[in-house]
Amino acid sequence: MSTMGSFLPIAVPATVPTILASTILVALFLLILRGIYHVYFSPLSSIPGPWYAAVSEIWILVHTLRCRKVRAIDDLFKAYGPVVRIAPTTIAFLDKDHEQQTTRLVYNALKLDKGPLYDMVHMNGHLHSVAIIEHSVHAKYRRIFSSHYSPGNIALLHPDMKASAELLVQKVLEAKDRPLDIFPGIHLVMIDLILKSTFGHDQGALEAWSEHSHDIIMSAIEDYGRLILIQGIVPDWLFGVVRRFPNKRWQTFCSSGDTLFNTMAEFVREQQKEKDAGRMDERDKPTLIERFFAHNATCAPADRLSFEDMTSESMTHLLAGVDASAVAVAYILWRFASQPLSVKQKIQAELDSAMPDAGMHFSKKDCGFTVQSLLSSNVLHLKVGLLICWGTSFQQAPSLEFDVFRWLDSDQPQDAMLQAWAPYGLGTRICIGQHLARGAIKTVLAALLRNFDVLPFPETNDESMEMMELFGMFPVGLSCKLNFRSRA
């Protein structure tokens, strides 16, 4: 009888270290293959740029966490030219054309979807119009409230803008010529205006402002801008772990989105009570929440906004409206403070002529000022992901220098400058609140420059006002302390 059966192979279970080592080797092999594909075979392989950007997103994520992505990419423009690859599926281009033809093609003609950055703004899965990636879906929701931000409707808010500007002047006067950080004051002006526009609610945030006061909404807005950035980079499972760190300030930071959502939810509940009681008919200014209610009353059941949708959308309008306008005013005041006396006097003489009464409403052409930022859209027709458009490069943009008379100089190419000036974006995804922002910015600036000589303060300098890149742009010091001397 054969004994071959005695030598059948016996399966030996693999040890845990063996399995782990094999898994790591397979993962490294796949990463190497992925890197080879992106460097040599990707549709973007011919686009210039550093090899490490083509291989992995880590390079751009590091600079995003350092809040200097814009400058890092601008350095690549200097090294590689106007079209550069910044990630495996991402390119950026610098539109040198004065008429911004390529930028306008992307944002006007092609009607592309938003880039993934905006997906960070979702709150509990509910509607955020700014965070809607798909162009077609966004267009549907934009129609619900687009009329609310029309020039005619914003004109109804001008008395509120004037009242807020006059109150800000009074608050600055209370500083009695001491250096004052104007940054929080401008934020509170915008919080009051947007809550008034959205709910008809008089928050009184600016009225309560003092050097030692603390506004919960403003603090939550500041925290949420950073939180969005972190949540967009850190995996959900990891953030779920680190957010449990038992530190009071850290817990406040991590709950900033919930704080804003719950605050807006309470306002929505109050407005629903007003509607049910029939008191909304007495209002002379239609609010955003009324448009939500009107939409629900006439649309198909499947298209109705839920309570959570209305809350989330209201939160978005607050977030989008406060920081951008406040930061713009702060930078303009800072630049104005360091202008030669002759420039200041010329501007104030014009204001004196237009506003014989220091509290009179002011209307003037927009200032030639803009904050450098990214515009992003998905390039679906190329099937390669994200395209980032640059209006201009830091190194190649002497036009970014603060020049208050640029728009009044007949020798300057006015049409080209207007076409290149896009602080509110371009195309169908242009900032829907631009008329509110323009009105508020001009009114606040006019009131401050009409009533005060704005002078520099040593602590507010190029270093403290360097732009920090979160979801938007902010001065790295998150303050703008200046000297305001009354002209009275």
TrEMBL record:
GO terms for cellular component: membrane. Heme binds at C431. Pfam families: p450 (PF00067). The keyword Membrane applies. Keywords: Heme, Iron, Membrane, Metal-binding, Transmembrane, Transmembrane helix. Pathway: Secondary metabolite biosynthesis. The chain crosses the membrane at residues 6-33. The keyword Transmembrane applies. Its cofactor is heme. One of its GO terms (molecular function) is oxidoreductase activity, acting on paired donors, with incorporation or reduction of molecular oxygen. PANTHER family: CYTOCHROME P450 (PTHR24305), P450, PUTATIVE (EUROFUNG)-RELATED (PTHR24305:SF164). This is Cytochrome p450. It comes from Lentinula edodes.
